[in-house]
Amino acid sequence: MGIITQIARSRRRRGITAAQVAERTGLKTSNLYAIEQGRRSPTVETLERAAAGLGLRLLAVDIGELSFVSDFAEVIADYDADGAEEQAYRAFMRLNRQLAAAPATTQVLLTYTPPRPVTVEWDAALAGLVEWRLRQKDAPIPDWVEENLGLDAGHWEPWPSVRHTDPDVHLVPGPFRRRGIWIEAGELDAA
């Protein structure tokens, strides 16, 4: 998710109109709408002013070779759409390894932006993974994770064809179990 989308989402979430942001910043309302709708490319200065009008600050963070959860969701969605179940699962496990190895502050940065929806199952799996890994380091849980309740009924296993036995529900971490995603902790830790 881009900076413009995040600023626009923050504005709407706070119940602030573009006119109010314009009044606070000296920017034109029509320009703000054009930027939000992708009809105009803003300068960094304009983005900083718009963010400041919402009480936000733009921050550049060097995450090195790491990827955001939202980036992994894009990859998983592409594989899922192509029916490439194994590759989707492998991308999920790469995210798992990345989060497991990252310090808590990096985890928070990589998980803050909500990923775009993939499927109900993958969305629940991503939320379960983020919650599980963040709780291991006593890091704050993003709202998008807390809001994901998972499957309405039943359970789901990503890429079940590689398993020779059904997962033991007692070995499934709570954040996954609550969402109906059956992945044992040992499978995640061994990855």
> How many domains make up the coordinates?
2
Q: Give me the Rg, rounded.
A: 19 Å
How much helical structure, as a percent, in the residues?
55-70%
Mean pLDDT across residues: 89
Proportion of residues in extended strands = under 5%
Shape: elongated
- The SSE string, one letter per element, is HHHHHHHHHHH
Q: How many DSSP E strands? A: 0
Q: Which secondary-structure class do the elements indicate?
A: mainly alpha
What's the number of helices? Answer: 11
GO molecular function, one term: DNA binding
Protein name: Transcriptional regulator with XRE-family HTH domain
InterPro entries: Cro/C1-type_HTH (IPR001387), Lambda_DNA-bd_dom_sf (IPR010982)
Domain HTH cro/C1-type: 7-66
Question: How would you describe the overall organization of this protein?
Answer:
This protein has 191 residues and is mostly helical. The chain folds into two domains: 3-53, lambda repressor-like DNA-binding domains (434 Repressor (Amino-terminal Domain), Orthogonal Bundle), CATH 1.10.260.40; 69-190, no CATH class. It contains eleven helices and no strands. It has helices spanning 3-13, 18-25, 29-36, 44-53, 69-81, 85-101, 104-111, 120-136, 143-147, 174-177, 185-190. Helix 2 (18-25) crosses helix 4 (44-53). The model has no long low-confidence stretch (mean pLDDT 89). It comes from Microbacterium ginsengiterrae. One of its GO terms (molecular function) is DNA binding. This is Transcriptional regulator with XRE-family HTH domain.
